[in-house]
Each structure stands twice: as C-alpha cells, then as structure tokens.
C-alpha cells in the first residue's frame, strides 16, 4: 500500500520583509497576504526557528544520537545557513507542516494572487522521500 502524499509550501522572503515578519508577524507591503493565509487556518513559521525548536526538543528528549538531530544542529550553527533559513518560511495549516494537495494548491494560488514583491521564491514539496533531501552520510 502506498501512503497518500502530503504537501508543504515554503515561501522565501527578501531580507527586509523577513526581518519585519520576525518582528511584527506582518508584512506592511503585503498586508493581505498574511491575512489571507490566516483565513486558511494557516501561518508562516520561520524555517530557522523550526530547526532550532527541533534541536531543543531532541536535547530535552535525549535524542541527540539521531542523525537528523546532528544534521539540523550543524545547520543552525552555520552562519550562512542561518541567514538563508531566517528568510525561509514554511506554511503550517492547523499546526501541521504537511497537508492535502488541494489545501497546498489553494494557498499557493493565494500567494501568487497577492503578487507580493518581497516574495523571492515559492516551493511546494511533497512527502515522498525520493523528492526530499536525505540525511548526508556523515551524520549516519
């Protein structure tokens, strides 16, 4: 049996808008974008913050031996990757980072409809491991 694929959207913002969103949880030049995402029971979560939280939870649960912990920890401690992931936001829907394709498609349309000038890139990922980065061998 093949598991049903789930999806995730990530939005990369320019540095100025990313900093504004971190500070205010809003983007002045794109106020409708944040509002319309919220109307979908969704929110923007900074990818760096999510990585940091994952590392903290692993430490708390004594799971520091896991390859994903080691990889993620190295990522958040790398200043270049930190800068990159501080501008990358995952859209969570009802607190979940993976959701049905129709939900991802609907939110993606909202993002493009808003034509927000501070959006650098929009990516849609699926839950198929073949389509996602695998833990580098040095962490296994």
What would the keywords be for this entry?
140 residues, four-stranded antiparallel β-sheet
Offer a quick outline of the entry.
Helix 3 packs across helix 4 (67-77).
Structural account:
The protein is an alpha+beta fold and 140 residues long. The protein has one domain (7-130). Helices cover 46% and strands 19% of the residues. The chain is built from six helices and four strands; from the N terminus they run βααβαααβαβ. It has a four-stranded antiparallel beta sheet. α2 packs antiparallel against α6 (101-114) and α3 (47-60) crosses α4 (67-77). The protein is globular.
Topology:
Elements: E1 7-13, H1 15-24, H2 31-38, E2 42-46, H3 47-60, H4 67-77, H5 79-85, E3 88-93, H6 101-114, E4 119-126
Antiparallel strand pairs: 1-3, 1-4, 2-3
Q: Average pLDDT value?
A: 94
CA radius of gyration is 16 Å
Distance between the termini: 28 Å
Q: How many extended strands? A: 4
Order of helices and strands: EHHEHHHEHE
Strand order of the largest sheet: 2-3-1-4
Q: Name the poorly predicted regions.
A: none
Beta fraction of the residues?
Answer: 15-25%
């Amino acid at each position: 049996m093949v598991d049903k694929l789930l999806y995730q959207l990530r939005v990369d913002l320019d540095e100025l808008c990313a900093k504004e969103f971190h500070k205010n949880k809003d983007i002045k030049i794109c106020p409708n974008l944040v509002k319309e995402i919220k109307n979908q029971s969704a929110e923007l979560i900074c990818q760096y913050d999510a990585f940091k939280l994952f590392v903290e939870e692993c430490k708390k649960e004594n799971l520091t031996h896991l390859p994903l912990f080691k990889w993620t920890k190295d990522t958040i401690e790398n200043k270049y990757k930190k800068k990159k992931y501080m501008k990358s936001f995952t859209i969570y829907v009802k607190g979940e980072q993976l959701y049905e394709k129709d939900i991802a498609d609907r939110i993606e349309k909202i993002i493009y409809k808003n034509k927000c000038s501070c959006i650098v890139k929009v990516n849609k990922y699926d839950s198929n491991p073949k389509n996602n980065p695998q833990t580098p061998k040095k962490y296994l």
